[in-house]
UniProtKB/TrEMBL annotation:
This is Peptidase S33 tripeptidyl aminopeptidase-like C-terminal domain-containing protein. InterPro entries: AB_hydrolase_fold, Pept_S33_TAP-like_C. It comes from the Eukaryota. Residues 1-67 form the Peptidase S33 tripeptidyl aminopeptidase-like C-terminal domain. Gene3D superfamilies: alpha/beta hydrolase. Pfam families: Abhydrolase_4 (PF08386).
C-alpha cells in the first residue's frame, strides 16, 4: 500500500499516516512537505512521479519518502498559473497541469 499525506494535514495528521504505514505490511509513505488536507492540497511533481511509478509499474518508493510542494499553500491566483497555460508537450507538463487543476477545484466559495 502506498500512503500519501502532507506534513501538516489538519484532518489526518502525519502521526496517523505513520501509524497506517506501520499497520500495513510492506506499505510506504510519501510525505509532501506542506499544508492542507489530502495530497491534492499541495501539488508536487515529485509525489506525482512516485505515484505514477507505483501505479504503472508497481515500483514502491523508499520507506518514508519526502517531497517538496511545488508552490506555497497560500498563493495568489494568477491566470498564468492556470492549467491550460501550463500544459505542454512533456509528461511532466501534463502532470503539472492536472495537479494545478485538481488543487483549484477545492477552492472555498464564499456563501452569501
Amino acid at each position: 500500500m502506498l500512503i500519501v499525506s502532507t506534513t501538516y494535514d489538519p484532518i489526518c495528521p502525519m502521526a496517523s499516516a505513520k501509524v497506517a504505514r506501520q499497520a500495513f505490511e510492506d506499505s510506504r509513505l510519501i510525505e509532501i512537505k506542506g499544508y492542507g488536507h489530502c495530497s491534492l492540497a499541495q501539488p508536487s511533481l515529485c509525489m506525482a512521479r512516485h505515484l505514477r511509478a507505483y501505479l504503472e509499474h508497481g515500483t514502491m518508493p523508499d520507506y518514508h519518502t519526502v517531497c517538496d510542494g511545488d508552490r506555497p499553500y497560500f498563493h495568489p491566483h494568477e491566470t498564468k498559473m492556470s492549467p491550460r497555460h501550463v500544459a505542454g508537450e512533456t509528461d511532466d507538463d501534463k502532470i503539472r497541469a492536472a495537479q494545478l487543476a485538481m488543487s483549484e477545484v477545492a477552492r472555498w466559495r464564499r456563501r452569501r
